[in-house]
Design brief:
The chain is mainly beta. It contains 3 helices and 27 strands. The longest helix has 6 residues.
Length: about 325
C-alpha cells in the first residue's frame, strides 16, 4: 500500500523536504540548492517511501519516549514494571514507540506541517508499556535553505511522565562531491559515555582528543557508534557540521539546550553519518536509579516541554 507523502518547499530558494506521516513522520528527503545545483542532504534506502524498510535506518527517525536503548525489555518506574518490545537484536528495547507508527497531520501549508502522536488516542496499547500517557507534536518548516523542527511534549495524564526525545538523522556523505572520506565532520563534544554491549555503564570520561572532534575530523577516519556528552554551546545553541571540500557545501545542524547528548553512528554502508541530538543518555532510567544524571525528563501533569533542531546547507565560503 502506497504511503502518503508530504512535500514542503521554499519558493524563494527551491529547497524541498519530503515526509511520511504514516511511517513515523519521518523526513526522509531534504534537498537544498547550493550554487547552481541541488544537494541531497539526507540518506534513505531507495524504497523507503514504501514504508516497508527498517524505520530506524533512513531519513530522520524520531525517538520518543526514550532515545537509544533501555537494558532488557522491562522498565522499572516507581515500584512498577512495564514490559517493552525488544528491538535491537540484543534483547533490549530501543528508540521508543513512534518512529514507525502513523501520525495525525493537524496543519499543512506549502512550507510547514504540524503532526501529532497521542499515546492513548493513536496507540492505546502503549498505555500498558509506559508510566503515563503522552502527547508529542512536531512542526517541520522549511525556510530559505534551512529545515527547522520544533518538538512539543505535553503530559495529559494525572501521573508524572518520565521521558526523553532524540532525532536520528542520516546525513549523506559526500554532500555533492566525489569522496565521502574527504568530508570533514565537526562535533562539539567534550566527553564520552562508556558503553558495555551498547548500554551506558554510568561512567563518563573526558575526551582527550576533544579538540580533534571540535575542529573537524575526516569522515574516512571515523568509525563510531558512541554516546558523547558535555556539548559545547554558544549562548543557547550547539552547532555541528559536515563540510564537503570538493563541492564546497556545508551542512550545519543546530540544537538548543534541551539536547545534552550526541550519539554519533557511522553505518556500515559508509554512505551517511548519523549525528543524533538526545535530551537524555540511553538507559537514563537505570542511570537515575543509580544516582547518575542521565538527563531523564520528568514532566508533571499538564506541563509542556519544547525542544528544537535546525539543519541548514550552504557554501562554506558563505561562512
Amino acid at each position: 500500500m502506497a504511503q502518503e507523502i508530504i512535500t514542503l518547499t521554499d519558493s524563494s530558494t527551491g529547497a524541498m523536504a519530503r515526509l511520511l506521516p504514516g511511517f513515523g513522520m519521518n523526513c526522509y528527503e531534504l534537498q537544498v540548492p547550493v550554487g547552481s545545483r541541488p544537494i541531497d542532504v539526507l540518506w534513505a534506502e531507495p524504497d523507503f517511501a514504501s514504508g516497508n524498510c527498517r524505520a530506524s535506518g533512513s531519513g530522520i527517525p524520531l525517538l520518543f519516549p526514550f532515545p537509544g536503548r533501555i537494558a532488557g525489555t522491562t522498565l522499572l518506574w516507581e515500584g512498577k514494571a512495564y514490559e517493552l518490545p525488544e528491538g535491537d537484536g540484543l534483547g533490549n528495547a530501543i528508540h521508543g514507540f513512534v518512529l514507525q507508527r502513523p501520525w495525525r497531520v493537524l496543519e499543512q501549508t506549502s512550507s510547514r506541517v504540524v503532526a501529532q502522536f497521542h499515546g492513548s488516542k493513536d496507540a492505546p496499547d502503549l498505555l500498558t508499556c509506559w508510566p503515563a500517557d503522552f502527547l508529542l507534536t512536531v512542526t517541520y518548516e522549511i525556510s530559505g535553505v534551512a529545515l527547522r523542527t520544533l518538538f512539543r511534549i505535553e503530559n495529559p495524564d494525572e501521573r508524572v511522565l518520565p521521558c526523553g526525545i532524540g532525532t536520528h538523522p542520516y546525513f549523506r556523505v559526500p554532500l555533492g562531491g566525489r569522496r565521502a572520506d574527504d568530508c570533514v565532520v565537526r562535533l562539539p563534544v567534550s566527553s564520552t559515555w562508556e558503553l558495555d554491549n551498547m548500554l551506558t555503564t554510568g561512567k563518563k570520561r573526558e575526551l582527550h582528543c576533544a579538540a580533534e572532534f571540535q575542529t573537524g575530523m575526516r569522515f574516512g577516519d571515523m568509525r563510531f557508534d558512541n554516546v558523547f556528552g558535555d556539548l559545547l554551546f554558544e549562548g543557547d545553541i550547539c552547532t555541528s557540521s559536515i563540510l564537503d571540500p570538493d563541492s564546497g557545501a556545508r551542512m550545519t545542524m543546530t540544537s538548543d539546550r534541551s539536547f545534552r547528548e550526541y550519539v554519533v553512528y557511522t553505518p556500515p554502508h559508509r554512505e551517511a553519518i548519523c549525528i543524533e541530538p538526545y535530551t537524555s543518555a540511553p538507559d537514563a532510567f537505570r542511570l537515575r536509579r543509580e544516582g547518575i544524571d542521565g538527563g531523564l525528563r520528568i514532566i508533571a501533569p499538564g506541563q509542556v516541554f519544547e525542544a528544537s533542531v535546525t539543519m541548514a546547507v550552504g557554501k562554506a565560503s558563505d561562512g
